[in-house]
Amino acid sequence: MKRTASANWKGSGKEGNGTVSTQSTVLSGTQYSFNTRFADGVGTNPEELVGAAHAGCFSMKLSFVIGEAGFTPDNIDTKATVTFENGAIPNIHLSVKATVPGMSAEQFAAAAQDAKANCPISKLLNTDITMDAELV
């Protein structure tokens, strides 16, 4: 399976602007610019998209790991905080809260560590990934 995404940029790095689109059309000509990346402009940015991809991938992987342990999650909420400093991403922090009937805190912690280490996006990224995981 292959998925595609594309970007178009016009102009200089600081004054220019661009758009990103995805094969699914969930993003279609979505605006990004210097201000959306380094200030509070309206639009998206690459770091935000990496965070969304990581949170989504991790949540789904955690659901699979929990299922392999014999449980079914009612809910998994994951927030990925991507730190962008000096032109690099030194770390991503995952904050996860999940409701899993019958699962102990220890079982959940082990499942979360497994998902963090083995979701495809975690494996792809060359950065420090930290996490706090809470069973609620």
Structure description:
This protein has 136 residues and is of the alpha+beta class. It has two domains: 5-38, no CATH class; 46-135, 2-Layer Sandwich (GMP Synthetase, Chain A, domain 3), CATH 3.30.300. 35% of the residues lie in helices and 35% in strands. It has helices at residues 34-38, 46-68, 105-118, 120-124, and strands spanning 5-10, 17-22, 30-33, 75-85, 88-99, 128-135. A three-stranded antiparallel beta sheet has the order 1-2-3. Strand 2 and strand 3 form a beta hairpin. The longest helix has 23 residues, at 46-68. It starts with a strand and ends with a strand.
Quick rundown:
Helix content is 35%, strand content 35%. The chain has helices spanning 34-38, 46-68, 105-118, 120-124; strands spanning 5-10, 17-22, 30-33, 75-85, 88-99, 128-135.
